[in-house]
Write a structure and sequence with these properties.
This protein is an all-alpha fold. About 75% of the residues lie in helices and about 0% in strands. Helix 1 packs antiparallel against helix 4 and helix 4 packs antiparallel against helix 5.
């Protein structure tokens, strides 16, 4: 299989985007926990809209992990795989 010379850059960008999505997800969860109970009903609508846009699933992880492996970044791929397991996602690899 021929690998485009730009592939490592693209894979790094995809990995960075996935990391950013994970950070946003965890920040949103923490902010929701800080709200008083009376406001929690109002905030319930925000995460639903957010999750429709930012949806992390096993496919999201698989695409990035597979690409990292293809460009020889096995240690980064393994770290991402471990993150996926810590998030209680069932690997399909």
């Amino acid at each position: 299989m021929m690998i485009d010379r730009r592939m490592p850059e693209i894979v790094d960008e995809a990995h960075s985007l996935l990391r950013d999505m994970l950070n946003i997800q965890s920040q949103l969860i923490e902010k929701t926990k800080e709200l008083p109970p009376a406001d929690s009903a109002k905030i319930d609508q925000v995460p639903i809209k957010f999750w429709k846009v930012v949806s992390l699933n096993t496919t999201s992880f698989f695409v990035v992990i597979d690409s990292l492996c293809r460009v020889g970044k096995l240690d980064v791929a393994l770290g991402l795989f471990k993150d996926m397991i810590m998030l209680d996602m069932v690997p399909n690899i």
